[in-house]
Amino acid sequence: MKPLIVANWKMNPESLVEAKRNFEIIKKGVRNIKKVEPVICAPFIFLPLLKATNHLKLGAQDCFWEDKGPFTGEISPTQLKNLGVDYVILGHSERRKYLGESTELVNRKIIAALETGLKVIFCIGSETKKPDKEMKYQLKIGLRGVRKQDVAKLVFVYEPVWAISTSKNKVIATPHEALKGGLYIRNVLGEIFDKETAKKAKIIYGGSVDSRNIRGFIKDGKMAGGLPGAASLDPHEFVRIVKKVDESLGH
Ligand code: 13P
Q: Alpha-carbon torsion 173, 175, 180, 184, what sign?
């Protein structure tokens, strides 16, 4: 599977004009990229107006767990799928923090998204410097009812809360710390499923990823890609991140 570079635009940009302009710059910049899968996770309102291509996929930043019905303000996995969206980020720490989203809710969303055929980008991370029980809980509860054959449709993100660029006391994680987080996730996946499934799981890294540090996370941190937030808001910087990874894979 190709390394994945996923832009999490969060609640940006402020206008459709800007969103379209940034998307076009990225589309142009990655059109010859063959060894990396770039994904743009844009706000819901922009998704119908950005067209995915073979070289640039679309993702959402959340979804509900039902297909349709009386759920004011929500967006369903089916609605996303019908728009041509391939990926959905679930369990992001900002949703846990600002919206009180529980791991039980994340679990319902993961099950629904997988059933619909979306690929799930499942964020795992805690406030502590070292991977801890909170991450184990997120994985065990978050994956309740997920069959082992569905693990291939999930992308796990090790995203330590303290390394996110906008966090109060931000510290940039080292590739070694990313490596340890990834190993922790893989071990827990081994406990939940089995060693073989855990070995094959795709784990990427999130937290202040940019074009200068991405190679370290991939090479020394053994990550299968990255989830940049702030750096992805500059379309040229996002293209640089994708290219850095593509070039590092050789011919
Ligand atoms: P930053 O890249 O801004 O640290 O954001 C990370 C993140 O939260 C991506 O989901």
A: positive
